[in-house]
Specification:
Blueprint lengths: L4 E4 L13 H11 L5 H15 L13 H12 L6 H12 L11 H10 L3 E6 L5 H7 L8 E4 L10 H11 L6 E5 L2 H11 L2 E5 L12 E2 L5 H4 L33
Parallel strand pairs: 1-2, 1-4, 2-3, 4-5, 5-6
Helix pairs in contact: 1-4, 2-3, 3-4
Amino acid sequence: MEAREVFFDFGGTLTSPVSDLRPLFEIAARGAGVRVSWEEFSRENDRLWEDLWPTAPDYLGRRPSFADTVHEEALRRAGAKGPVRSMVRAIRREAVSARWHPPFPETEVVLGRLRSRGYGIHVLSNNVDYLPLVLKNLGWSRLFDSVTYSQEVGAQKPDARVFRFALARAGCAAGDAVHVGDSWEADYLGAMNVGLRGIWLNREGQDGHPATEEIRDLRGLLDRLPGRVVERRARARTLSHPETRPRRSIAPAGRPS
């Protein structure tokens, strides 16, 4: 069956991920007037993120959020001196800022052309509930038909539950959908294992996966998804809970995938 809905990973696919998070951390620390070691914070943050991740769905719609809770405890364990909660708020402000999530040059053009051809377009990201705020700050709040992030499911791609949750939210069957992402395992294999058509966004030209359908940038989709889609079911546009899980706590939303 011909695909009607296109799901996109976020960081590394639609936007360019920030490789060094220390500047974000230092900006937040200066703004809050807190003294703390980046190395100590990073170590505690990663440990807490892994330990507490099973509880992440319980924080949806709550304040403090899951990420805020992890950041605050990591700062305290790292021996932060100063107003810790002010720094938590500063980290959140920075993490959702558009400057840490620059779109790839072709992103908006390709999304617009797919929309004009009648495709539904969706975000499916390993992320937390910062993500809708990031989309808002990018001016993308109304660009997608649905947004799904892994915190809502309590699992991460390539776990089949994440894909099935996103399909249910979008109101479509796996055979009607394509998923595009920059991780061969999380995005391509995860999608294929659930019955979606997977397309690997291989920007770096990595070798080793000869049977994979791949593109080098998003413009390659315009050749692989040609023509106008007809008889698409109308659905209300839905954003997830207001306000995103990067594997590292202060990573800009959408990282790693």
